[in-house]
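Collaborator request, handled under Task 6.
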Amino acid sequence: MKADLRIVPDFEMVICAPAESFRWNMHDYPYFGAKWHYHPEYELHLTRKSSGVMMVGDYIGEFEPGCLVLTGPNVPHNWVSDIEPGIPIQNRDMLIQFSAEWADRVTGFCPELANIRPLYEDAVYGVEFLGATAMAGQRLLAQIGAAHGAERIVLFLQLMTTLAQNPGDRRRLSRLAPTSAHVELPRELDVAMRYVLEHYSDDIDLASVSRLCGLEPQAFSRFFKRQSGHTFARYVILARVYAACSLLTQTYRPITDICFEVGFNSIANFNRQFIKVCGRTPSDYRRNAHKIGTKARADPFREIRAFSAGMGAVGEKV
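Structure tokens returned to the collaborator:
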């Protein structure tokens, strides 16, 4: 019997900041997340530097600077640059990632945006943009990175309508779409994520969670980072900060109380971690949220929880 030589893609966990509807990012190469992987979010990916081989679904082909590709939910993908080992490329990739829920909201917002839907339908195969559409898409994608607040949404809509308006400037890459929109998380990742989202306000011990997953701590740490793109400690911090965002927006509870409610053991550490994640202090976050009348998402991890049926929302404790 021949060995099974299939390359199984890793699941990547995409976490969007609580004050944003979609995630914009740039990263270097080599990069731990640059691997054969999939996630339930759409991804618009621009290669800014280097050339090499890209894999999208069952498609394998060459890429070069300026390659702009949109992949749909759960379409496996990877870009491998042809460079000498040990030579880094700074800011090789620029990308945005957004949930299917957000995509549906955008196309259903008003009839004028209905022409975006065929683009999303093509994205389940992965599509590469060509010609003037690709050039315009690159410019708008870069502008989003410098934008804030409502300007990001305006640019996002402009980007999607630009990419959708000329079907002749895009080509399908993969012959097959994912067989299902629902993807099972690896059991160990599902167990760990469920535990954190249920117990983020408690002391969380890596060794205890490792035992729940049936792994040694060191093996669990490697597994969690490979599958999620975050260290386990980082994921716990994100869960606590995002829970704090809901409390800051939905209540007038003192910030010190919120700090300890979500599991931090000192106000100094809470402020430091909050600034790292949200780019502002907790008081600034609350002031801005109340000023513009926004509401925190009742469950900041709802995209992740779609894989974990039966759990209560983080916001239920408020």
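The cover message to the collaborator said: "The chain has twelve helices and eleven strands. The radius of gyration is 20 Å. Please let us know whether this matches your experimental observations."
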